[in-house]
Design brief:
By secondary structure, the chain is mostly beta strands. It is built from 1 helix and 10 strands, in the order H-E-E-E-E-E-E-E-E-E-E. Helices cover 6% and strands 69% of the residues.
Length: 192
Amino acid sequence: MMRSILVMVLFAFSASVYADGFNYNSVTLSYGQMQFDDLDVDGDSIGISGSFEVGEKFFLAAGYGKSDIGDNFISADIDSWSAGVGYHMPMSDRFDLVTSLSYEYVDISVDGFGSESDNGIGIGAGVRFAATEKFEIDGGVSYVDYSDGGDDTSFGLGFLYNFTDSFSAGASGNWGDDTSAYGIGGRFYFGN
């Protein structure tokens, strides 16, 4: 269960660092729901993440998320942090391949049982596709290996609607071995 919580919190907060023709300078605010497939436990999450382009094809990314999960018998607070670097390779003016490498940290506090933290490495590969001038589709796969909490692979899919050159909003889903996460968010672009 600990492994599933760690991995899904991570993916619930991971912003798709993939955006418009394509701008990799952004800040994203998000709200999400997590569901644990084998347990009758779910939770809410909020997060902030961002990326900053360095050079022509690299970007730095970081994020923070807070989640509350539980039911009538158990309650837990989860804080997660992520920081890393990514690389994007334009395949056309409407399609980018994106890879990333990140350091991940998570702290879980369970009422009546104390807290536990873990850290590890995450890698990801995905695509960004501008279906139209206003509509973007993102998808990818991520793998996280924690030092104590095990490892997991998750698949994600999302979309963004570009209201202006500076603001987009959308929804996303992530599916791992034991959990599912769904979220909505707003992304603010700068420096393009």
